[in-house]
Write a structure and sequence with these properties.
By secondary structure, this protein is an alpha/beta fold. The protein has three domains: 80 residues, Winged helix-like DNA-binding domain superfamily/Winged helix DNA-binding domain (Arc Repressor Mutant, subunit A, Orthogonal Bundle); 102 residues, 3-Layer(aba) Sandwich (D-Maltodextrin-Binding Protein, domain 2), CATH 3.40.190; 117 residues, D-Maltodextrin-Binding Protein, domain 2 (3-Layer(aba) Sandwich). It is 46% helix and 20% strand. It contains eleven helices and eleven strands. Strands 3, 4, 5, 6, 7, 8, 9, 10 and 11 form a nine-stranded mixed sheet that branches. A two-stranded antiparallel ribbon has the order 1-2. A hairpin with a 2-residue loop joins β1 and β2. α1 packs across α2 and α1 packs across α3. The longest helix is centred in the last third of the chain and has 41 residues. The N and C termini lie far apart (94 Å). The relative contact order is 0.12. The N terminus and C terminus are likely disordered. Keywords: DNA-binding, Transcription, Transcription regulation. GO terms for molecular function: DNA-binding transcription factor activity; transcription cis-regulatory region binding. This is Regulatory protein CysB. Belongs to the LysR transcriptional regulatory family. Pfam families: HTH_1, LysR_substrate.
Length: 337
């Protein structure tokens, strides 16, 4: 004999609400726009409005305030949005648990990647999803401060960066080497200077990432430790802009060698032969210490620890091989006076 506890009364609000309606409402609450909600859910705008209208009728109170500037949540809407978020999280966990019972990894992999790691992560994510075809991917790219903030706000489950954020309680697992060095145009005078040092680099314009980036933190710490003041040439949030300026001879850049492997191989950039360089650090997969990882993120963390370095080495080797013919074609021209 079974006793059913907490049966919903026929007159109770949300008695007839459906999961689809909650998904639609939760998406609207997050995006703040009917059109963007329709686009994300692959629905028409009238279909979104219909789902929301039925949910409001079931709730017995207005959830949205509609005006010339769009829609906003009412007080009741804010309350329901909080519960909807929790309900959908539990539903996703239930779905992942059922997939695990079938020996599968499922769900959405929410991973944030610092800009410098753009070169290596797409291939690693692709290889992972080939092994786990039930996993969807939500990939966010930004500087170190942005990705750390997304992790803190639980907008992502894993962060990929070169230095764990000290301001958060995290679990940080290294999975691959991360070489960093100064690079310049191939005809830069420092490349021909015997015994060039960090003090020599301080005499030329430095091309730097913006404040909040891991690369910027690393180079500032490098000069601070040496007791040398660096000379700022240009500051930008784009690795591509830094590489282009550097190749044009504007200055010297401190950069992840993973971010400029193709330019180095093609002879567009060259590494300065400074003592102790490149500086080899690590790439980390980082998660919040007090929050269990969803199945997809946990499996991706294992994949990175077990296969990350080997997969990255294979990609680097393949890129060098692909660029070799171009390098050989460029060499005769480069040798001309």
């Amino acid at each position: 004999m079974f006793t059913i506890v907490g049966v919903v009364s026929p007159t109770r609000p949300l008695k007839n609400a459906t999961l689809r309606q909650l998904v639609t409402f939760h998406t609207l609450a997050r995006l703040g726009s009917v059109s963007r909600t329709a686009e994300e859910l692959h629905l028409t705008q009238p279909a979104v409005s219909l789902q929301l209208g039925i949910l409001e009728e079931s709730a017995g109170t207005p959830l949205l305030a509609r005006g010339a500037r769009g829609v906003r949540l009412t007080e009741a809407g804010v309350v329901l949005a909080g519960y909807a978020s929790r309900l959908l999280q539990v539903w996703n966990e239930a779905s992942e648990a059922m997939a695990a019972q079938c020996g599968q990894v499922a769900g959405t992999l929410r991973v944030g990647v610092v800009t410098t790691a753009e070169y290596l992560m797409p291939q690693l994510v692709l290889e992972f999803t080939r092994q786990h075809r039930q996993v969807g991917v939500k990939l966010s790219v930004g500087n170190r401060a942005d990705i750390a903030a997304q992790l803190a706000q639980q907008e992502i489950d894993l962060a990929i960066m070169g230095r764990p954020p000290a301001e958060l309680r995290v679990d940080a697992a290294p999975f691959a080497h991360h070489p960093m060095a100064f690079v310049a145009a191939p005809d830069h005078p420092l490349l021909d200077k015997p015994g060039a040092t960090l003090a020599d680099v301080a005499e030329v314009p430095l091309l730097l990432r913006e404040r909040g980036s891991g690369t910027r933190l690393a180079v500032e710490q490098l000069f601070k430790t040496a007791g040398i003041e660096m000379r700022l040439g240009a500051e930008t949030s784009s690795n591509e802009a830094i590489k282009q300026l550097c190749a044009a001879g504007y200055g010297v850049a401190f950069i992840s060698l993973h971010a400029c492997v193709l330019e180095l191989q093609a002879g567009l950039l060259a590494q300065l032969p400074l003592p102790g360089h490149p500086i080899v650090r690590a790439w980390y997969a980082i998660s919040l210490a007090d929050r269990p990882l969803p199945a997809a993120a946990a499996a991706f963390g294992v994949f990175l620890r077990e296969q990350g370095q080997a997969r990255l080495d294979a990609k680097l080797a393949a890129d060098r091989e692909r660029m070799a013919p171009m390098t050989r074609r460029r060499s005769p021209r480069a040798a001309r006076p």
